Amino acid sequence: MSGKIINPKPCSHLANYRKKHGLRGYNSLQKNLNALPHGKTTISKDKSQAPRCSFCSTNKGRLYFCLICSQIYCFISPDSNHALLHCQAERDHEIAVDMERAELFCVLCCDQVYDPDFDMAVMCKQIKQLPSNNDCVKVRKQSSHKRRKVVDCTTSKDLTLMMDAGPSSCLPLGLRGLNNLGNTCFMNSVLQALLHTPPLKNYFLGDQHNREICRRSSPCLACDIDAMFSAVFSGDRTPYSPARFLYSWWQHSANLASYEQQDAHEFFISVLDRIHEKEEPSSSQNKGTGDCHCIAHRVFSGVLRSDVSCTVCGFTSTTYDPCVDISLDMQSAPSLAEKSTKMGKSVGISTLMGCLDLFTRPERLGPDQKLYCQNCEVRQDSLKQMSIRRLPLVLCFHMKRFEHSSIRKMSKKIDQYMQFPFSLDMTPYLSTSILRNRFGNRIFAFDGDESDMSTELSTEFELFAVVTHSGKLEAGHYVTYLRLRNQWYKCDDACITHVSEKVVRALQCYMMYYTQKMLHYKASDDLDCFRIFTQEGTHAGCC
Q: Is the dihedral of CA 494, 497, 162, 201 positive or negative?
């Protein structure tokens, strides 16, 4: 595969700006760039006072800095868009910079746009403001009377060793901001979770997919993921631009190739599908049990069991389906009220366990979904119950926060808080547990394979990543929170900040990633992980 980096094409307005002005605007912007700790960069026209809109003097909403005339204008909503008014009043003033995030914005396209030269200008400013080697030190306080230990944070070896120094030390190796390439927060949020998924990290950093000797002639998304792992875990702290990966993903997902905001969950599924489809057909057999050997399915694939039972005679039809995530309905207000009445006290709070109970609860099917009962030989009313036949190495839960009504022709977002545990035992939701609750122990005389499938892997999981969505359905922002070495970090595109456990527990989660507890504890020590890589050997080729 060619090593040449192919960047996404700019919009016509940005291309026109570059043709007329070249790099002059980017270079002159350097004096207004302000690089903050952990990779975030902002625009400060006048550091002595807060920026305000030239039209209405507000400092609310998004503020944009015109690259032509340096005026500041706001974009609070489509009805209060002074950025567009400025663009209409001044010809060829379409390209601006988001002052809070230092990202290019096209006013006419009403969208973020990407230019690698602008990206380089921002990174140059960040590099200039980095402290020297003598200043880049982190102190580990051993005791009040002992000498402080000074470590150079500029080498990857020291970065790995310094992970023991606590939250005030250098960030863990591999924790690197990702630049927004134009409404790509959906991509960055999922990539941060994938980059810190323990089995995936072992696979790609262990050189088990070597892009240099990949024997496939067609473009391979896994090769670009491998390159991204190498770049992110190189020890470089400047924000990384996944432009090559984005372009490669566009090539493999043409229907999603645009600068428009996409759904993070759909992107996650798309990436796993693109990795999976590169497998040889012979290795993707036994779909009923989910026994595909591509790395995507080895990590994320589990098996769901669906039982549809006749309400007259009890005949049951059972099907098995592989899955790479579990989509859960939010507990509705009526179900919460019902639960509160049964418990004799007011609860009114949705929980992940409650959503899992709802997922595995028997459901009466409608009249148009009647089961053809082989015993009764007619269609009968039926009950459907879901359970988990086999757990994956990494569990991904997707909360259905976006509702779409074809009848009302409208969509809405469910802004409902849900409690979720950091440690999760999945035993109650396995097929063995569900069947035992329904039929008692006698069922296992007829269905003994369920016990083997459900207990292959550990049932205890630890939370390591949470993806959140803030804002409205049509215009929102995705952020990821990562748990590394028992510390939580907020990954907001290029900006990485340390946050408390209390902040994480208060999140409105959209996607949650849990890894088996055994893998979680292994991943807590990166040095041990690298020793595991060398012991397992390497495997060339795709997936």
A: negative
Total-model pTM = 0.70
- What 8-state DSSP symbol labels residue 92? T
Note if 185 is an active site residue.
yes
Is 106 among the catalytic positions? no
Token code pair at residue 55: 């039209």
- Torsions phi, psi for 397 (to 5 deg): -105, 135
Contact 152, 181 (CB under 8 A): no
Residue 131 buriedness (CB in 10 A; 0-12 / 13-18 / 19+): exposed
Instruction: At 78, give phi and psi (nearest 5°).
Output: -55, -25
Query: Cα-flanking dihedrals φ and ψ of residue 460, to 5°?
Result: -100, 130
User: Tokens representing 397?
Assistant: 């839960």
Written as six digits, the tokens of 318 are 């059972």
Which member of 74, 185, 355, 373 is catalytic? 185
CA distance 147 to 275: 51
Helix (H, G, I), strand (E, B) or coil at 541: coil
Question: Which residue of the set 13, 21, 293, 477 is catalytic?
Answer: 477
DSSP code for 430: B
Distance (Å, whole) CA 417 – CA 415:
7
Mean pLDDT of 368-379: 85
Question: How does pLDDT run across 275-286, given as a tens digit for each residue?
Answer: 887 654 444 444
Q: Greater confidence, 356 or 39?
A: 356
- For 240-307, the DSSP string reads B--HHHHHHHHHH-GGG-SSS---HHHHHHHHHHHHHTTS-GGGG--GGGT---SHHHHHH-EEEEEE
Nearest to 270 by CA among 327, 208, 324: 324
